[in-house]
Amino acid sequence: AEPMDGKLVAFLRVLQMDEEQLNEWQQSTEVEKLLDLQNRLGVDGKVMQYMITRAALLLRAYPTTLELDQQIIKESKDEVERLICQLRLCEKRILVNCVAYCEQMLKTINQ
User: Fold this and answer.
1) Which residues of 69-87 are buried (b: 16+ CB within 10 A; e: fewer)?
2) By the 8 A CB rule, do 59 and 95 touch?
3) How far apart, in Å, are the Cα atoms of 64 and each of 8, 61, 74, 90?
4) Total-model pTM
5) Full DSSP string of 39-55
6) What's the distance, Cα to Cα, between the start and end of the chain in Å?
7) Any idea what DSSP says for residue 11?
8) Mean pLDDT by 10-residue block, N- to C-terminus, for the chain (111 residues)?
9) Could you tell me where the DSSP H helices lie in 18-78?
């Protein structure tokens, strides 16, 4: 299974298309191909770059680093603070993995 949902892929592809590409896809009888990441399109490089940029921006918006969160989880006596930190840590790991996946896909696309 792909780590990116087909509907997200289709949305991002449409978001990155220019007017000419949008018109072509509106006339197409194979619109479902937009949902399939295995079906390479010319905008896929832009899609991956968009995801990398967006995830990186979300990561920068957090007030703490991964290391500080891990330290808080180990040292905090407050259960609520530890749970908040665990959630934040999981969110950051998802975003870091998203960036890594998209960078890997971008290398594949650019070959």
Assistant:
1) beebbeeeeeeeebeebee
2) yes
3) 28, 9, 15, 13
4) 0.86
5) S--TTHHHHHHHHHHHH
6) 23
7) H
8) 86 96 93 90 95 96 92 94 95 95 93 84
9) 19-27, 44-60, 66-75
